[in-house]
Amino acid sequence: MTSKGKTRRMMSVGLIGAALALTLAAPARAGETPTAAAGWQLTTTGTDARFRGLAAVDRDTAWAAGSKGTVLRTGDGGRTWRDVSPPGAGELEFRDVEAFDGRRAVVLAIGEGEASRVLRTEDGGVTWTESFRNTDPRAFYDCMTFFDHRHGLAMSDPVDGKYRILSTRDGGRSWQVLPDKGMPAAQAGEAGFAASGQCLVSSGPRDVWLATGGGATARVLHSADRGLTWTAAESTIPAGDPARGVFALAFRDRAHGLAVGGDYRKDQPSPQAAAVTGNAGRTWRQAATPPPAYRSGVAWLPHTKSAALAVGPTGTDLTTDGGRTWRTVDTGSYDTVDCTRDGACWASGEKGRIARLARR
User: Fold this and answer.
1) Whether pLDDT at 228 is above 90
2) Phi/psi of residue 17, nearest 5 degrees
3) For strand 62-66 and strand 51-56, is the pairing parallel, antiparallel, or unpaired?
4) SS3 category, 67
5) What are phi and psi of 119, to 5 degrees?
6) What pLDDT is stored for residue 250 in this prediction?
7) Closest CA to 286 of 313, 255, 262
8) DSSP string spanning 225-252?
9) Which of 25, 60, 152, 348 is most buried, by the most CB atoms less than 10 A from its CB?
10) If pLDDT is split at 50, 70 and 90, which confidence band does 55 have?
C-alpha cells in the first residue's frame, strides 16, 4: 500500500472509530456537553444565534451561518470562533453557507422578496459583497450548492408552478436565473425546507438533487446537467402537510444517496424519517430502522461506503450499513452536519451550538 493509501486508511479508521464511539457511550441529555467518548464536543461560540448553515472545510476550518445575520469562522478546530458577520445584516436569516477555504465563502439569506440574498467574501469575512438580491416577491430561496470553486446553484420555492434555479459560473460573484423548460411542475403546496442548507446538494461536476415536501408526496428532483433539466422521483418519507417531507439529502457519489426528514413539529411523530437510493435517486427505499424522530441534516462520513450521521433537534443517529438502519447515539440538539475529506465532522444548531466529532 502506498503512503497516501495508508494515510487515507488511517483517516478512515480514525473517523469511523470516533463515530462508533458514540454508540459505546450513554447518550448525553439534551443540551449537555457530551464527553470525548460520546463523540460531539461543543465549542464556545459566544452567541445564541441558531446556525442552520454550516460549511466544514477541514479539521481546522469551518464556517457557520445563522439567525440575526450571524456568520462565524474558525481556523483552529473550533477552539475560537471569529464573528465575521456582514455589516448591517442583523435582520437577515442566513440558512446556508458554502466555503471554499478559510478566506472564500458564500452565504444565502432566506425570505420572501428582497429578504433572499447572496453575499460573498474573499478575505475571511473582513469584507462582504452582495452578489444577488431577489426582486421577485413570489420567490423564496432556500438552499445552494457548489460543484467546484466556480460553478454553483441556488434554488427557490416554486414560481409560476416550477422551482426556480439560480446559477453562477464565477464562484458566486454573479448569478443568473436558469430557464425552467426542463423543470417538472411542482405539486400543489410543494416547497423546499430551509432547515439545514441541505435541500439542494451536488456530487461530482454536474449532478445535483433537490428535496421537497409539503405536497401530496415528498419528492427528490435530480439533474445531471447542472440544473438545466430535471427528473422527479417520489421518496418514501411522508408528506401531505406543509410541515412534512424531505428536509436534507447527502450523496457520497452520483449513485448512492440518503434522504432524511419527517414532520418538524415537536408534537407530531416521524415514523419514516429516512430513505436510501443506489441509483442516483431514480428510486428510493425506506430505511428498515429509521431515526426515531424528525431529522433535518445528514452527512456521509468520508472514505467510507456505509457510515453516515443524521441530526435533528432531538438527537444524532448513526448508520453503518448505508442508511438501512439507524441508531440514536446522542440526544443533543443540532440542525445540520457536515464532514470533511481530512476526517472531521461538525454539527451546528440552536442557541449557538457548534460541535466537532471527537476522536477517542
Assistant:
1) yes
2) -60, -40
3) antiparallel
4) helix
5) -125, 150
6) 98
7) 262
8) STTSB-EEEE-SS--SSTTEEEEEEEES
9) 348
10) very high
Distance CA 317, CA 336 (A): 12
**CB-CB contact of 126 with 85 (8 Å):** no
Whether 250 and 308 have beta carbons less than 8 Å apart is answered as yes
What is the residue whose three cell numbers read 417520489? 234
* Closest CA relative to residue 55, chosen from 144, 173, 162, 178: 144
What cell was used for 339? Answer: 464532514
pTM above 0.85, yes or no: yes
CA angle 90, 163, 148 (to 5 degrees): 70
Q: Per residue in 231-290, pLDDT tens?
A: 999 999 999 999 999 999 999 999 999 999 999 999 999 999 999 999 999 999 999 999
Per-residue pLDDT at 23 exceeds 90: no
Q: Look up residue 125 and give its three cell numbers.
A: 469575512
Strands of the sheet with 354-357, listed across from one edge: 40-42, 354-357, 345-348, 336-339
